[in-house]
Amino acid sequence: MTTQRRNGHVVASGVRAVMALAIGVIAVPPLVGSEKASRAVRLTSDSSPTTPSSELPQQQPRRPDGDGGVAVEGESRQWHKLTVTLDGPYAHELDNEPNPFVDYEMNVTFTHESGSPSYVVPGYFAADGDAADSSAESGTKWRAHLSADKPGRWDYKISFRHGETIIDSDDPESEPLAPYDGTSGQFDVAPSDKSGRDLRAHGRLQYVKERYLKFAGTGEYFLKAGADAPETLLAYVDFDGTVTRKPQKSPLKTWGPHVRDWRDGDPTWQDDKGKGLIGAINYLSGKGCNAFSFLTYNAGGDGDNVWPFVERDDKMHYDCSKLDQWGIVFDHGTARGMYLHFKMQETENDDHRLNNRNDANVPESLDGGDLGPQRRLYCRELIARFGHNLALNWNLGEENTQSTEQQKSMIDYLARVDPYGHPIVVHTYPNRQDDVYRPLIGDRSELTGVSLQNGNVGDTHWQVIKWVRESEQAGKPWVVAFDESGNAAHGQPPDLGYKGFDGHDRQGKETYTEHRVRRETLWGTLLGGGGGVEYYFGYQFVENDLVCEDWRSRDRSWDYCRIALDFFRDHQVPFHRMRAANELVDSDPRDNRRYCFADLGELYLAYVADGAPTSLDLREAEGRFSVMWFNPRTGGDLTRGSVETLDGGGQRDLGTPPTDPEEDWLAVIRKR
Fold it and tell me: Which long-range contacts (CB under 8 A, 24 or more apart) does 549-553 make?
């Protein structure tokens, strides 16, 4: 017998030192001979291998199968997470024949009493049902999550099938597994009782074929602002089975600076684990931000410390306890009003293209970039375990280099399996935007938006306008977000004064500060018609994209984000009806000194970055307009400047803001 240590305890690759009665086990015949060889070929390849953590067909000893009982757990309210847990066949994470992640398929159909909506929700193996706390690797619990749109009675029916590698086919040859298949029941859902930032007060955030996402419950349109860094957010010491292959470059995080932000009543696991990361989410939410991003798979990448599997190179066996712990963090994010940006892979492991080579061998890639069993299973597991969250997107990957056909296959699969229709986006290199995005635009794919990156913050505004307009012209408006503005070395710098930052990077090179980012990234995106921003932290700064554990390093920048989001909400700005109109302030989209965002004839937002005299073209407008000024550095009420009213029908001088005319200001010109 050989053993390996995982999740803080010894796991046997042979016979485990645990006694159990092997009775009541449903017989699923093991594979032999050519069947086993054929299966191995389907699950792996020379270029994208997967190495089982155990060579045994099944972990021993076995325990009885479940009796088919069903429990419905959770707060039975609209938009809340409700969990159907089936007491099903006994399995172990490391089992190969049958593999619980590949050879069983559980789906639950949830239908509202009115007949609509009806969702087919993928299920997953949940070990003992308490794996986040127990670190269990085996059990009889199988789960599916619903976030119900409507109050009232909901019916459910479970489909539970088994067959060889059934996850690897759209029409698998499989058989129903008694007594689990066909189990049904019902439960009642009450209206939501949540309020404030909690997303359960607002409903699911949906792509509605417009430039902005919209909450299904309240009908409000959404703007995001938050953290794109660290990409290694999930490389956390408190998660089971989490190690780093690059301890010097990318050590595991404790999130120690944010332990103080954890509050009584917040979730933990295994007594008091999780306080640092839960506290970090509290902090960012408390600053008024509403988004954070993370890689869910970076083996072979810059961090090489995040994967959902039981072991780094075992792509077909998933770590139940680690993923349950991830789920606690994501659920807390939903309760704190946070949009979850799932970056599903990165450029170093998305396919066999690497460093401008199309013939590289990347063993960490899933199916070499194709939609095979590894990638199907990966997508399905993320959807099944986390897709109930109300605000999220599936990003194909950071700096994605898959071919257009590979991207389309992955996009189509995500769209087909995700019952809730969450947005699907893709991120790529600054110089590859045209090559990657144009083949996916309009009716060419199910893509709903783009996650932009550039090499110069000064290019943010015009690039947002470009993709907003191109997608609209193609007949399917995209949600355009700027998630990585600035070059890799700098991105979003720390606040001036943080750990001595004085506007120079670690090599002594003078760079820009938080103020330019506020002007050109934040307001440049929002006034270009973009759906929001996330801030990337450059590698030439402390608290960068790989090692950041302290979001307070950008404390004032989060304030600027809150100020911007509050402006649009508090002043009831109908941004979903507005368009970039820089020509009205005699400005080119590449000139970041002035922006104009307009609902023509009704409302104009004129952003003036440097106090330069500005006029507004109202020749096509009629009536009288009020002129007020908003301070994007401090927020607050609108104030009067030197000019209080303008008449339509001509070119009109906006005058000067109330104070500090050399600073950036936003003029609000509204029809009276």
Answer: 549/230, 549/253, 549/254, 549/255, 549/256, 549/257, 549/258, 549/276, 549/280, 550/257, 550/258, 551/227, 551/258, 551/280, 551/283, 551/284, 552/257, 552/283, 552/498, 553/494, 553/495, 553/498, 553/499
Does the pLDDT value for residue 36 go beyond 70? no
Ramachandran region of residue 203, left (φ > 0), alpha (ψ -120 to 50) or beta? left
- Give the whole-angstrom CA distance, residue 344 versus residue 463: 24
What are 410-463's pLDDT values in tens digits? 999 999 999 999 999 999 999 999 999 999 999 999 999 999 999 999 999 999
The dihedrals phi and psi of 450, each to the nearest 5 degrees, come to -130, 150
CA 16 to chain centre: 37
Top pLDDT among 557 and 1 is at 557
- Asked if residues 355 and 390 have their Cβ atoms less than 8 Å apart, the reply is no
Distance (Å, whole) CA 268 – CA 265: 9
Q: What ranges in 482-601 are assigned the alpha helix state H?
A: 514-516, 523-526, 555-570
pLDDT of residue 1: 27
**Which residue in this structure is represented by tokens 């009675």?**
153
d(CA 200, CA 187): 19
pLDDT at position 433 is 98
Write out pLDDT tens, residues 239-272: 999 999 999 999 999 999 999 999 999 999 999 9
* Residue 552 burial (CB count, 10 A): 18
Cα–Cα distances (Å) from 426 to 198, 311, 429, 447, in that order, read: 27, 27, 10, 8
Please provide the average confidence, as pLDDT, over all residues in the chain: 93
DSSP code of residue 658: S
In this structure, which amino acid lies at residue 527? L
Q: CA–CA separation, 295 vs 342, rounded Å? A: 6
Separation of alpha carbons 30 and 42, rounded Å:
17
Q: Output the DSSP codes for 272-334.
A: TBTHHHHHHHHHHHHTT--EEEEES--TTSSS----SBSSTT-TT-B-HHHHHHHHHHHHHHH
Give the pLDDT of residue 22.
29
State how far the alpha carbon of 236 is from the alpha carbons of 97, 338, 347, 358, in Å.
Answer: 32, 19, 22, 33
Predicted TM-score of the model (pTM)? 0.94
Q: Which two tokens stand for residue 73?
A: 């757990």
pLDDT above 90 as % of the chain: 90
Nearest-angstrom CA–CA distance, 69 and 186: 14
d(CA 221, CA 469): 19
The residue with tokens 């330019």 is 516
Alpha-carbon gap, residue 521 to 431, rounded angstroms: 18
The whole-number pLDDT of residue 42 equals 55
pLDDT computed for residue 6 by the predictor: 38
